[in-house]
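Hi there,

I know you've been waiting on this one. I reran it after we fixed the sequence typo, so this is the corrected version. Both the input and the resulting structure follow.
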Amino acid sequence: MHSPANQNAPTSRLRRPTRIFLLALLAGTPALAQPLTTIALTGQAAPGVGPEVTFARFSPPALAADGHLVFFATLAGDGLSADLDEALFRLRDGTLELVVRESDPAPWYAPDTRFVGLSDFAIDNTGDVVLAASVDDPAVSDNAAKARALGLFAEVAPNTFAPLARIDDQAAGLPDGDLYETLNSPAINAAGASYFTGGRPGDGLDSVPKGLWSDRTGTVTLLLAPGDVAPGTGGGLFAHFETPTPSPSGYVFRGSSRPDGSADRATPGVWRERGGTLDAIALGGRPAPGTTTTFADFAAPQAINLDGRVAFVAMLDTRDPVTDSGLWTDRHGATGLLVREGDLAPGTSSATIADLSPHIAMNDAGDIAFRCALRNADAGTNTAIYLARADGSFELIAIEGDTVADELGEVTIATLGDPQLNNRAEVLFAATLTGAAVGRDDNTALLACDSDRVVYSVAREGQAIDPDGGGARTIRSIVVNTSAAHAGRDPLDDTGRIGLALSFTDNTFGVFTTEVAYVSPADVNSDGIVDTRDFIAFLNLWNAPDPDADFNHDGVVDTRDVILFLNIWSRDRD
């Protein structure tokens, strides 16, 4: 039988900075705990796209392990047409460069075909790109045919793409005349192998796709097709499968199977390929480890780490809605239950685990971050984020009602988003905040848990920053990639770097990076200690007055900055 998670493993609660407030009066949203590095900003010249063309808007960036960063941008400039205003850029070795732009030549049938729509991308550890895009083939005049001019493209040399698959191409590995009809967004592993699925228009969860393909051998190869034998099913055949979550050691995916010749509804399952061998991890109708019942269905996506260990959320065949789902992993060998709805919640006295979010994250050590609802003894509910360590312990990263290290006054967490996790066990997640001084324009933040287990704001709506030395701008919204399972779109890398996009209240936008580490804004002399020397250093700046004493970033050095500094200094001093 499965024991409740907090009964068989130690639980730690994160360290919280001591909170002493000299003054109750606040002077605006606190400054950032860690400065942002500006990568691109509205109005700045966009590299590689011609004179007088500037950045306008941005999508959230993806980070590669080698320090590279990639993002979509909308361009602006006199006479710039709608089919020229999207481009993909990359920060590589400290230099921002154009990767591909609408109107660039596209590898298609006609030599003068151009890209006209850039829809999605993923990157590997070196920052190389796999791209989903549409093209304009001048040899095609039929509107319906033009609408089908879509493909997946791999970067084979700097700024040079080759087709992985194109709509109406012969589908690799299928009989002659069997073409790619639909293509789903690709995934890519850290080593640069791309994976994608395709099917027929109108395919649903239980219908027949055409295949799963990869270029991991250097050429696009069919890995799986409907009708292939589904391992672990006793001769059942695959009916459906989804784009997998890949790693350098293999991939994991959700699919379904049915007996040969059967028209019954297919049975769901989770399969993993590792070392060239495809195996079933869990199957519908089969016993669910750690329980007395069977698996009913499986959530997506699944998580997989460097060693090919997996984690997934599944539903159980039980009529009890309080205990009908759980989180399983094979991080220590055999697949086992990590936590189940109805378990006593680690780090609490009486709350139990309720709904589990399917968007889990797993690092190479086998640590697993997950978000879940908690059901309290008074029938109330709230939400928490846990880190289930590979050693069997649990850390309660955040729970609704928690305070945040660099927020002052009565500001607490109201809701939590899904976690991202890196190999340093640092956690990144979105949250909404609540409190007497919190309004609609400043109630959303991006939070991080650093290696010292301090949860703080990376950025918050309503904060003022100066991204280019031209004056303060107020953050209106924060956007990061939110897929927790690694698929080449990560906002958090293994060095602790974060990539994010911001919009500002003056209708400008930017792409930024920062580091996961809480640094007290009161450490004025940057010696890593908050003490009397920082107090003296601040007073010297304030008396000058020096712009660095403008703690609330309102453009004025005045008494309100002293009030804000004293609140932070008194709270964080060593």
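Quick highlight: The longest strand covers residues 114-123.

Best,
R. S.
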